[in-house]
């Protein structure tokens, strides 16, 4: 509705947010939001859409869209931002595993810059990221090994755990517990990127049943784009398949 989109815009402006990743997006354009942000939407056929909002003061390039709408990637300054919405629910476990093991890596390996991976992963890679409020034991199979493999394979750094060691950071609360489904990762690069992320926090948004995850990062605008070497034999990266 118009009211919900206005609430979203106010939330982004009040938080002074420059880049915003949205999930479950069902619209291609919105004049209300586009008055302040570039709206780049990837609307899938089954309400799987993702979008990235970029402040009008920032330039972007290399927009990539996954056909099902579950992933959108954009280059802004010295980072590639990849926003995802993974399949949800027990019945979609195989689909989610394929998405995390194949789809996300296929887009990630094309990044020319250090990338920031963010969004709703709809799973956890640590048993501490899920809690029950009814004093019930947490089943051992809640950990997604597909997510763990992706994090390990790309040497990703969990920004929440890096900056908030003592807070659980659960973003989705339901009648019997809570989970940390929404995450921000950065790819491990050189030591020069170790301190780019200054803080991270959760903020409630009235039109969503998930809390938003917000982080502040710095970017060296003089950081050169990584380019392919012109020397040697070019080889296709088979991970793309």
Automatic annotation (TrEMBL):
Cofactor binding mode and count: Probably binds two magnesium or manganese ions per subunit.
A Pfam family per the record: Exo_endo_phos
Residues marked Transition state stabilizer (site): 122
Positions contributing to Mg(2+) 1 binding: 120, 122, 209
Entry-linked SUPFAM superfamilies: DNase I-like (SSF56219)
Keywords: Hydrolase, Magnesium, Manganese, Metal-binding
Record keyword Membrane present: no
Reaction(s) this enzyme catalyzes, per UniProt: Exonucleolytic cleavage in the 3'- to 5'-direction to yield nucleoside 5'-phosphates
Active site (UniProt): 85, 120, 210
Essential cofactor(s): Mg(2+); Mn(2+)
Site (Interaction with DNA substrate): 210
GO annotation, biological process: base-excision repair
EC number annotated for this UniProt entry: 3.1.11.2
Record-linked Gene3D superfamilies: Endonuclease/exonuclease/phosphatase
Residues noted as binding Mg(2+) 2 in the record, renumbered to the chain: 210
GO cellular component entries: nucleus
Enzyme class: hydrolase
InterPro entries with a match to the protein in the record: AP_endonuc_1, Endo/exonu/phosph_ase_sf, Endo/exonuclease/phosphatase
One Gene Ontology molecular-function label: phosphoric diester hydrolase activity
Signal peptide: none
Domain Endonuclease/exonuclease/phosphatase: 4-188
Similarity comment: family membership: Belongs to the DNA repair enzymes AP/ExoA family.
Descriptive protein name: exodeoxyribonuclease III
The species this protein was found in: Daphnia magna
């Amino acid at each position: 509705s118009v009211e919900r989109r206005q609430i979203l815009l106010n939330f982004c402006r009040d938080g002074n947010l420059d880049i915003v990743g949205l999930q479950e997006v069902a619209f291609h354009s919105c004049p209300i939001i586009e008055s302040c942000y570039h709206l780049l939407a990837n609307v899938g056929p089954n309400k799987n859409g993702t979008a990235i909002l970029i402040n009008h003061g920032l330039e972007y390039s290399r927009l990539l869209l996954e056909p099902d709408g579950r992933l959108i990637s954009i280059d802004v300054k010295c980072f590639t931002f990849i926003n995802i919405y993974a399949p949800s629910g027990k019945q979609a476990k195989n689909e989610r595993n394929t998405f995390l093991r194949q789809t996300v890596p296929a887009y990630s390996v094309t990044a020319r810059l250090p990338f920031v991976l963010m969004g709703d992963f709809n799973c956890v890679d640590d048993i501490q990221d899920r809690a029950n409020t009814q004093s019930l034991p947490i089943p051992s199979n809640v950990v997604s090994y597909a997510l763990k493999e992706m994090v390990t394979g790309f040497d990703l750094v969990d920004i929440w755990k890096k900056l908030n060691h003592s807070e659980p950071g659960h973003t989705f609360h339901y009648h019997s517990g809570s989970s940390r489904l929404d995450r921000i990762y950065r790819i491990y690069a050189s030591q020069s990127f170790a301190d780019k992320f200054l803080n991270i926090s959760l903020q409630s948004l009235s039109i969503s049943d998930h809390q938003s995850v917000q982080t502040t990062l710095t970017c060296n605008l003089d950081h050169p784009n990584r380019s392919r070497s012109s020397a040697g034999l070019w080889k296709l990266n088979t991970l793309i398949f």
